[in-house]
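User: I'm preparing a small set of examples for a lab meeting where we compare how different chains pack in three dimensions. I only have the primary sequence for this one, and I'd like the structure in token form so I can line it up with the others. Please keep the answer compact; I'll paste it straight into my notes.
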Amino acid sequence: MQLKPVPLALYALFSPVISSVSFQSVAAPQQQASEMTTVVVTATRIEQPLSETNGSVAVITQEEIEQEGATELYDALSHEPGVSVSGGAGRPQNITIRGMSGNRIAVIKDGVKVADGYGASDMNDVAGHNSFDLGDVKQVEVVKGAGSSLYGSGAIGGVVVLTSKTPSDYLGSEDHYVGLEGGYSGISDKYTSALTTATRLGDTAHLVRVSYWQGSESKNHDQSLYVRDIDGINAALTSEWFLNDSWLLKGKVDYYRQQARREEGIAPTQADGGGWEATSFLEDVDTTTLSARAGAEWEGETLLAEQADINLYYRQTETSGDKDVAMQRTQEGLVFKRRQSENRAFRDHLIGLSADLQQRSAHGELEHTVAWGVQLESMLHERPVNVRIVDWTGDTLSESEPFASARTYSLGIYVHDDMRWGKWNLAPGLRFDAQQMSSELDDTIGSYPLHELRSSELSPSLSLAYQWTPDLNTYLSYTHGFLAPSYAKAYGFVPHLSSDLGNFVIRPNADLEAETSDNFELGSKYDDGRLVVYGAVFYSVFDNFISEKTVGWNEAGKYAEVQYQNLEGVKTYGAELTASYWFTDRLKVSGKLGIVDGEDEHGEPIRTLTPLEGNTLLSYEQDVWNGFVRLNYAGAMNKVPSCQDDLGMSQTCATTSGWMTLDAGAGYDITPEFRINAAVHNLLDREYTRYQDVAGVTESQTRFSTEPGRYFSVNARYSF
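Assistant: Understood. Below is the structure token output for the 720-residue chain.
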């Protein structure tokens, strides 16, 4: 395929028909259905039908996102077995895949990792993986299980890949496009709007998209949360230049900003004890991401490659949280007043260069598709804290960095070979990663020494599949995962002190080793165009698992000393099943089911397990409208670890009961240019709690964690 603008435009116009089960394609006759398989472009960096991918990969298309009225990753991924997202609009969002969460999941948008999240116990409940506009995403792909042989450090538990739309996706065979979008999501009273323009000028194509949203934090069932008001904007410019039949130059600049404001809250913990009550509260959190990318795509014939994609990229993500609290307490008849103002910043800067190449060859009946590439990156992480306290003792300003500013350099080189011989498919892969992290400013923190931390790892993968019939295959796969120690766990000195029990200080540990995992999966896929059944069982062992451990007691300060250390290991295992059946060319039933189990080195359940959970969907589609009804359900979760309460006492973590909810929705093409989608979620207004939202906390900390009650979503799109 040559890189000429018209052929590319025609391919983009018809790609929804040949690469995804879209509203138009599912209404096609059954004999064509087998040709309409979803195309995965990231699972092995080699484009192939989902039914032929030797592993579990979930694909969520733009049409499915619009049908659900999803505006957050929380909404888009909530119906995938083995995958869950905590948080929501206005709150940090943390992704869990097969029992692994936090920064053990790599989130990649257009080939570039999004900013790290952070929070206690890897829950990313302070900053999450959601600093982008989901409305600009063409497709979301979830690789379940380790992906380090292709994506390096951070992909030890799974990968979420988001692909944005390009000018060709909007233009098709036309030279100009203008589109307006608007929507409402009742889960957070969020209103969204967007203006998209695209144009083709000679051998160039350009896309400008501006979106704005305003609403509040996602609600719980009785709407008892301290709700943040949110508003945000995203503006992006994408350009493509077709130099000749072989070369395409491309570039994109993207700016995202979201502000969240809360005027209700509780007094922060004070060093001189409890009893403080907030008399006024104001919190503003501002998250911005500026990214830029310049690259080139090439197609031709050389000894080493016939396709190449080269990119130079930059991303700067900053979160700044300002909090101002006036408080008071009464002791022995006296009223004491205090005002605390603080700013907590998080800066994650990334610059990198990547080259991804591909070569196809045939030797008799043996066909090779080799993907290989190299990646160089430099990252900077900073988390300064400024706290000012004004009370009867005076005016005190403290400036600190509980986590030393850290610079990280990394190198990754990978190769993957997809070999096909008759009915056999063998796919070996290997990636080498080397990482060097050091403190930018100081060689100590909290009087503890810091030194350079180096990590390197070889991450192999291997899968073997046999095609029993044209519709049925079985595969066995092995993948290796790798996670280099993060700055937060190696270079952190974080006091958690008050006059109450349970005081502790987290000490740095610059001697941490990288976490690794070994993942095995046995699965089978059947797809004859009318009946689709995918099933898999998996088993994963994680070694050198980094977790908190109490290492001592400071008698003078009366606090426990805690440190992140490499523990023996964690294992997870489970099963997933996805099936669908077309009763007619218009009526389909589909279902998904999954469960994740596992325990740590002591045999205790890990925090991020998933009970038996799934859904059953009945959908009907015609030429201009479609509708669906979905039943969502989950079993009870009683297999939970031990937790510590606010006083540091051990107790059993929160459990959850089984639940069942009902959703329904419909979409209608009023004209070929004007489409509207509407859905109602939790139609019966069921009050319930998903285990993933309370995992690892005590029962007393769950009263605000119920899921939203009945809510509606609607979105419309009009193109000129």
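A couple of notes for your slides: The CA atoms of residues 572 and 598 lie 4 Å apart. The two ends are 30 Å apart (CA to CA).

User: Perfect, thanks.
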